[in-house]
Structures are given as C-alpha cells and as structure tokens.
Amino acid sequence: MSLLELKKVKKIYQQGKIEVPALRGVDLIVEQGEFSTIFGPSGSGKTTLLNMIGCLDTPTEGEIRLNGNKISDLSRKALAMTRRFNIGFVFQSYNLIPVLTAYENVEFAIRLIDHTSELQIKEKVLKILAEVGLKGLENRRPNELSGGESQRVAIARALVKEPKLVLADEPTANLDSKNAADVVKIMVKMNKELGTTFIFSTHDPMVMEYAHRYINLKDGMISADERRG
Amino acid sequence: MFSFKLGLKNLTRQKRRNVITIMVIAFAFFGYLFMDSVMGGMEELSFSNIKNYDTGNIQVAYPEYWEDREKLPLENLIYLNQDIVDSIKNMDGVLGVSPELRFKANLNNGIDEVAVLGLGISPEQYNEVFATQNYIIEGSMFTPGESKAVIGVKLAELMDLKINDYITLLVRTKEDTFNTIDVEIAGLLNTPNPIINNGVVFVPLDIAQQALNVGDGVSLLALKTASGDEDKIAKVLMDSFNNKNLDLKAYSWRKSAESIIALSTAKKGGAATILSVVLLIGMIGIINNVILSALERTAEIGMMKALGMREWEIVFVFMVEATGIGILGGLVGCLIGFAGVGLMAKYGVDFSYMGLDMSEYGIPILDKIYGTWNYPAFSFLFILGVVVALLSSIVPAYWAAHKDPVKAIYHR
What we know:
The complex is a heterodimer.
Chain A: E1 4-15, E2 18-30, E3 35-39, H1 46-53, E4 61-66, E5 69-70, H2 76-86, E6 87-90, H3 102-111, H4 118-131, H5 147-159, E7 165-169, H6 177-194, E8 197-201, H7 205-208, E9 213-218, E10 221-227
Parallel strand pairs in A: 3-8, 3-9, 6-7, 7-8
Antiparallel strand pairs in A: 1-2, 1-4, 4-5, 9-10
Helix pairs in contact in A: 3-4, 3-5, 4-5, 5-6
Chain B: H1 2-10, H2 15-55, E1 58-61, H3 63-67, E2 78-79, H4 82-89, E3 94-108, E4 113-121, H5 123-129, E5 136-139, E6 148-152, H6 153-158, E7 166-172, E8 178-189, H7 194-199, E9 200-204, H8 205-212, E10 217-218, E11 220-225, H9 230-243, E12 249-252, H10 253-256, H11 258-296, H12 298-306, H13 311-347, H14 375-401, H15 405-409
Parallel strand pairs in B: 4-9, 6-8
Antiparallel strand pairs in B: 1-11, 1-12, 2-10, 3-4, 3-7, 3-11, 5-8, 6-9, 7-8
C-alpha cells in the first residue's frame, strides 16, 4: 500500500466571480521512505499541492488517500487530528514561537501527541536536537539562533513526533547556500535513519540534487515525474 | 499543560502593550475601590451625623404623630409621665432619653424673616443623647427656664446675628393662634451636620411648651443606644409599651432617615454603574489585546494548526494570556487601591476646601470625609475582573483560532 495517493486532484480558487484553477487534475503516488522534490515555476501549484497533501486544505475535486485512508473530505477536526499524528511541516520562514527556547519549540510538538513521562519526552527532544546538530543550543531562543539553526529546530519539531510524512515548503529559500545544503543534508540523513517520507518544494537546483524523485509541476499539472538512484 | 505554559510565556511578548492594558485595568480598579471607599465613608459619616445631631438612635412617638412628623404638628404629642421616661431610661442598652418639642417657626431679626425648625429641649437630657453641645463655638447652652436660644453659625450669618442679639420666633400655638418667643442668642453652633447649622433654633423645652400652649407635651423622645442595637432595643421597647397598653411606638433612626438612606441606595446604584464601566474598560482592553496579538501572530496560529492543534487548544492559549493580564491588572489595581483607600482612611478629604458643600446634595456632612475599608470589594472586584478578562477573551480568541490554516501560515 502506498503512503500517499492522489487521484485527479483539482483545486479551484474563487476570486470574486473568476475561477482560478491552481491544480488541474494531479495523479500522484508516493511510497513510504521516498525523498521527493516538487519543483516548477511560481504559480505552478507547488504550495497548493503541499497544502492538499498536508491536510491544510481540501481539493475541489478528486481524492487523496494517506496510508489508505481517504483524507480529501474529512472534517476540520479530523484533518487537524491527521496532521497532529501523521504529518510534520517545515516552513520557509521557520515559524518558531519566539518566547520558547529551541528545546521548548520541539517539546511543543511532541506534547500534542505524547503523554508519556517527562523523562521520556526530554530524552526524545534532546536526541532529535542532537541529530539535527543543535546539541548545546537547546536553551537558545529563536532570536539567538541563525537562520540555518532556526530551520534545524523546525526540522526537529517536524520529526520529533515521528510522522509518516514530512512536508517542507521551500525550506531553504531564506538560507545561504551553505546553510541550505546543511539543512537538506539533515533531511536526507533523517530520511535514511528514520525512514520518514519527505516531500519538499524548491526552486534551488543545488537542493534538488539531493532528491531521489523529481516532480515537475507546470500550470497545475505534473509535467514530469522522474526517479534517480 | 504545555498550552498553559505557552499562554503564560506569551505574557512576556508585546510588553509595552501588555503593561498599558494592565495599567488601564489597574487604574479602573483603583478608581472603583477609591470611589467605593469615599462613598462608604460618606454614608458612614452622614448616618453618624443623623444619629448624633438629629434623630438619636431611636425615636419614640405616637404613630399618628410619626405619620405627620414632616408637618411638625402639635397634635398627638406625648404628655410626659416620669414613670415612662424612667422605665425607658432604665432599659438595658438605653444610654439617654431626651424629650423634644418640634415646631414650625419664623425667625425674625427685626428686619428679615426666615422659616426654621424650632426645637424645645431640656439641655441636660439632650446632652445625654446628642453631641451637639460639643460644637458650641461661641457662648454657651441655655439652662431650663431661660429665655435664650442657640442657633447654628450659618443661620446666624444668614440673619446677621451674633451672641446676645435678640430674636423673635413667630409660632402658632396648638389652638392655631399666633404667638412669639422672644429670646436672646446664648450660643452659636457649628456641628458637622449642616441641617442643624442652617435651620434649627434650640430653645428651652419649658419656654417652647408655654409659648405653644401644649402643657407638658413633647413631640417625641429621642433615645441614645449602643450603635447597632437599635432594632433589638426598639423591639423590646415596643413590647414594653404593649404590656403597658401604651400606643407609643419606637422607631429606629433608619426610619427617620429614610430619604438619606434612599439617597445612599441610589449611590450604590451609581456604584454599580461605575463598576460596569470599570469592567467594560477591562473588557475592551482585553479584547483589544487579544485581537492585536492574534493579528501579529497569524503565521504562528497557522503553524499551531499545522501541528494539529485543535481550535479550543489555541483558544486556551489566548485565554491563559488574557486571564494573566486580568490577574496582573487586578493585583496592581488592588494594590494601588489598597494604598489609596489606606491614605483616604487615615487622612480623609475635606470637600469644603474644594468648594463643595455636600449638604447641597442632600448629604448631611460638613466634616472631613474619611474612607472606609470594604475588604469584600477588593476580593469581589478581583475575582469579577479575572472572570470578565477570561470571558471577554473567548470570542476574539475563537476568531483567531478559527482562521483558515493556509491563509494564516502564508500571512504576511
């Protein structure tokens, strides 16, 4: 069974009386453990597609299945629960909570799903922060971290709950090339070590180099879908 | 409860705005507590002035007289029987009994005339019940049988009178014929009760009785009792009158001061309005704070939703923050209020220095007003403030939590 399955997914936005199609019938199957990139020009529908897959939005037409469960017509509450237990997000602008430390930002995500002991939670959070190379920076607040470090916290936050799927929308767009490469390397490492499926959108050819699968989106449709390695 | 922790940590964000909201709530709380203290002091003092200078704690009269007492009738008077007076005086809790003959009079200084309340008293007994004699600032009290009077300084000023001047009181006798009482001013009073200072002429009881042709009749007996025991003693008196087949009735000072008490009740209504305004200020502050915070943290709300937080969990974070502001505002307000009420209770305020004559507003006060401590008001206001802060945050917090996650995440 595939992790993710999209069948003829369409998304049409209504702007006044005008209908703007963002996705025009996307068919896609993603297997567990894949490391895929979605690329394409601005306005091609990359973010819309990630939002559909991430249960942040629902399609106008078509069907989306995650782990065999149809998620395309779930209620808001059920979508929230699906996101909580199955999906991790990494955003372009990190979206860390400024009053929380790196440790607390990661702890926040796991507290939503894990009600085990304080000690176990602490172990998990410290382990994942060490995995992303932030050992020793646990008590720093976002304003005391560089962009690369902040994005690593965001990756740790997405991974700490051990989701089946991590979605990253242009995760390196705000980073310099060295930090961008470091962040993608961490994602690759976590993909290999934990078997987490990653789908990320990007414009950056250097970042794309690390992907195993390239999904090219053009005018709301998949124009190419290649696998490498 | 990580959401609780996050809500508390959020209190440290937008410090300036939070401090302003906290201070607005605090000053609104302070304003209410201060007003409540002043109004409490005003009420306490006006009641004390009524008891100490006007009515005594209990008044004994015939019910028919009591009904018409505002008209100062010379009907239905009590004809003094020393046994009755002695039995009242010997009753437990009764500290003094003063017979009074109240009558209408026109004070004439030879040029002008003004309507006054004539009060025939027996100085020694009057002194047992009222503190008026302590406020004779010039001259002295008369003795029984002397053709002398004591009047308030305000009345003296109005009629251009001074000690040893002669005045004429034009009165109507019981038979409704005109008579006069010619008396020399023996003393000038300046009591804390403006009603006494402005319009009462004290004359010896026997002189008044003779001029009004009422024999030994008196309008009522004013009693001094231990404060707070009025109702209990009034009931004992009533039982005693019933046992003796007397039609007399005992009235607590509250009955005599119904209009002042009604004014005080109206003031409490005013206090409730002030309280509503205070809470409204708090509500607006909190709602404004939550809305601005939600707008500033839209992307963060989007992230929370992406993490899978349910709407009520996000609402809870904002509610904790808003309640925290309410608690801090309430605490600071109660602290400032505590200091303000403390100063007011210790040093008081003299409204006459501000050119205010409280008697013009029907409040029998000339003295300094001291604040009173109303401890339940502190806890009541604090709890109410926190509850209002919590409740007023729900709608804007829900509005924030209900945002579309996609729009929230990509909000700029």
